[in-house]
User: What shape does this take?
Amino acid sequence: MADEIIRANVGDMPVPDFEDPAFVTPPKLSEATVAIVTTAGLRQKGDAGWTPRDPNYRVFDTDAEDIQLGHLSPNFDRSGFVADINVVFPVDRLKEMAEEGVIGRVAPRHVTFMGAQDGNMTTIRKDTAPAVAKLLKEDGADVVLLTPI
Assistant: This one.
């Protein structure tokens, strides 16, 4: 029933068309710095909770250990996260890949947004996403692993 309700509310949302999206050619993965961007609405213990359609973001250090799932959707199955945080925030897998030389290194910081946004997303497109891009660029990130929730 929840699937039907959500599909009815968001199934026909328009998707923005970007005529000239920015793109750069990243270095080889074995030389790239990789950051995670997730829409899982993660938060650290003690942080305020998310609000519905919150366009803000939160930043986590690579070694943060007190990460909690804060995604608000009633339709989101949390069992994977409970079993292994790497389902939505695969920082341990990135660390292993860096040790094996598959990627160059893991970025020092990662970012989470709240998923379940409305179709407009103006604040994210014009404000918070460019701020996140600047932050990750300052950290030397070449590639972003997006874990959409």
